[in-house]
Amino acid sequence: MEKKDILIDYDREEDILxxxxxxxxxxxxLDIDVPQGNLVVDYGFDGKVVGLEFFNASAYFPQLSNSDLxxxxxxxxxxxxxxxxxxxxxxxxxxVQLPIKGFFPAPxxxxxxxxx
Length: 116
Description:
mainly beta; 5-stranded antiparallel β-sheet; 47% strand; globular
């Protein structure tokens, strides 16, 4: 599978951080409520994860308020099972040695996503 760059967009006014695969379109989105703020997982036309959106992002990532994301890099890795996708994300900020990283499970059913 071709490796796609992960693009980063942070809307400071709305406090939303988006990570998404370059050139991919979302077919289906799943909203997950968590204490820090909502997460949205975007699934592509092949049924795989193509994007993540963190609402109330500064609660997840307090480093964002002081960071210039223009040269930041990101990646996510997904382990799929029949009913769950375990999503691992990494954000590399310029001048910071260790990445911001985390993971969360998301409900997953490829058949339902492809039929949506």
